[in-house]
Amino acid sequence: MAQQTGPCILDVHTPSSSFAIIYSELDDNLQSLCDKLSRKTIAELNGRHVRPGWVKYEWNGTVWNLDDASDYAIFGWRLKSSTPGGEGWPVLFVRDPDSPLPTPPEYQNPSFYMFRPKPAPSSPPLPAFDWGEPLTASDLAALALNMS
């Protein structure tokens, strides 16, 4: 487990841009984090202040809300358990949920979680069999093809 002792860098993605901020567990709280994000997104958000409900973060492949003190505490614990810049290091996402997402031909940031391509299934689904009946030779052949 990594232990954060000083400021670290957090990557941030919006629907149309990416940037990084300096984050300090000792100096920051949810409000100061929203303030930092507001300063970096002032043009994109037309001067609107980032507030709860606008920030999410990805940790270990799952996107989580960062809406209140409880979410922020969990975010802090996850930072402490991650290696800065490593595989499980949190990444922030900011979006005004009242504004529409950009649509082509507008630029769509491919790093923003909502614009990422959906992963292809790792293996084809197995054919459906009625397991209450004995398997036939064609059932066994279909299973063998799907397992290879």
Describe the structure.
23% of the residues lie in helices and 17% in strands. The chain is of the alpha+beta class and 148 residues long. The chain has one domain (8-115): Roll (Ubiquitin-like (UB roll)), CATH 3.10.20.90. The chain has a five-stranded mixed β-sheet, with helices on one face. The longest helix has 12 residues, at 69-80.
Number of strands: 5
Mean pLDDT: 84
Q: What's the level 1 CATH class?
A: Alpha Beta
CATH superfamily: Phosphatidylinositol 3-kinase Catalytic Subunit, Chain A, domain 1
Strand-residue proportion: 15-25%
Q: In the CATH hierarchy, what is the architecture at level 2?
A: Roll
Number of domains: 1
Rg for CA atoms: 22 Å
Q: What is the molecular shape?
A: elongated
Order of helices and strands: EEHEEHEH
> Structural class per helix/strand content?
alpha+beta
| N- to C-terminal distance | 39 Å
Count of helix runs: 3
- Provide the low-confidence segments as ranges: none
User: Tell me about the biggest sheet?
Assistant: 5 strands, mixed
Question: If you consult CATH, what is the topology?
Answer: Ubiquitin-like (UB roll)
Report helical residue fraction.
10-25%
Based on the structure, what is the oligomeric state of the protein chains?
Answer: single chain
Which strand order does the major sheet show? 2-1-5-3-4
What characteristics describe this protein?
148 residues; single chain; 3 helices; elongated; 17% strand
Give a brief rundown of this model.
With 148 residues, this protein is α+β, with helices and mostly antiparallel strands.
